[in-house]
Amino acid sequence: MFFKRSIGLIFSPYSSMRKISLESTWSEYIWILILTIIYFISTNSVHFWLNGLSGALCLYGGTIIFFSLLPSSGTIQEKMQRLIKTWTYTLLPTLIWFYSTLFFYFLIPPPRTTSILGQSFSIFYIAFSMSLLIWKLILTYLCIRFSLRIHLYRVIYYLLIYLALSIPLWIFLYNMGISRIPFV
After folding, report:
1. What is the DSSP letter of 176?
2. 119: Cα separation from own chain's centroid
3. pLDDT digits 0-9 by tens, 60-119
């Protein structure tokens, strides 16, 4: 079911995210947890992956709690359950970006040259990263919309509040060496 929903989020994110918010099961999320743990273990040092994983869990839990406390329809528990289901799936673009960056790092290690091939790879990588960012933003919007059952302007308002509060946290985690990249 996890793979079916993941493919659905690529080709029809609206209907897939709606289905996830309404009828998904908790067993689907173990795959994202496993992929996250494998990624953090595959990085260089045990210290880094423990810090990275703890930072990711902190940001994930904080995000779920933050959005579930905002005014919208439903109880906090209902919102939290829907947010856990949908927000977990918004981590797919992030995981794809992390794994592809790790793959490209080993395939074409830096420094890359200013040759035609080096510049072509840079353009490809930036376009690939931007497409994943746009997909992530779409999934984030749909997650908040379906989990909190609110409309566009309120989603944007909540996202702006979230960014205003979380960017200082991201900077703090970065300066403490806990999380180099915000895993949200």
Report:
1. T
2. 28
3. 888 899 999 998 888 888 888 889 889 989 989 988 998 898 888 888 877 777 788 888
Q: In angstroms, rounded to a whole number, what is the distance separating the alpha carbons of residues 49 and 72? A: 36
Contact 174, 180 (CB under 8 A): yes
- Phi, psi (degrees; rounded to nearest 5) at 181: -130, 130
- 99 within a domain of the structure (yes/no): yes
Query: For the chain, what's the residue count?
Result: 184
Q: Is residue 184 part of a domain?
A: no
Instruction: Tell me the whole-structure pTM to 2 decimals.
Output: 0.85
Q: Judge whether 57 lies within some domain.
A: yes
Asked whether residue 180 is assigned to any structural domain, the reply reads no
Number of domains in the chain: 1
Structural domain span for residue 19? 2-175
Tokens 């992956």: give the residue: 49
Residue 143 exposed, middle or buried by CB count within 10 Å (0-12, 13-18, 19+): buried
